Amino acid sequence: MSIHKFDKSVSMEEKTSISRQDQFYKIIHNIVDEEDLDLRLITTLHSIAFCDYLLGTEVEENKRLNSLINIVNDKCNTAYNLLEFHVRFLDRYFYRGVKSNLSIW
């Protein structure tokens, strides 16, 4: 993934983020039929949601992720919903070496 730093800013290339996101979708399709991979499924779904966040996609508008969550729910007998994978930064920002809060819902 190409990441460039410009005067305390980070820039990521869209093509690279989309490519990474497509890899996450492939992982889900490859492991959805396997047993005892709940943590990996959830982690990968969150990774997809984070890529969407970086690309500026609103979680409610993400039909592809919603469809994938429905497939996971059917095959794994779970009840995940799209809003559980909503990613946002909290309104609290910290400067001068203090970590900022990242919230993944």
Describe this structure in words.
Helix content is 48%, strand content 13%. It is of the alpha+beta class. The strands form two sheets. A two-stranded antiparallel ribbon has the order 1-2. A two-stranded antiparallel sheet has the order 3-4. Strand 1 (3-6) and strand 2 form a beta hairpin. The longest helix is centred in the N-terminal third of the chain and has 18 residues, at 14-31.
Strand content: 5-15%
Order of helices and strands: EEHHHEE
Summarize the main sheet: 2 strands, antiparallel
Q: End-to-end span in angstroms? A: 24 Å
Shape from CA axes?
globular
**How do the strands of the widest beta sheet line up side by side?**
1-2
Radius of gyration: 15 Å
Q: What share of the residues lie within helices?
A: 40-55%
Low-pLDDT runs of 5+ residues are: 91-105
Q: What is the β-strand count?
A: 4
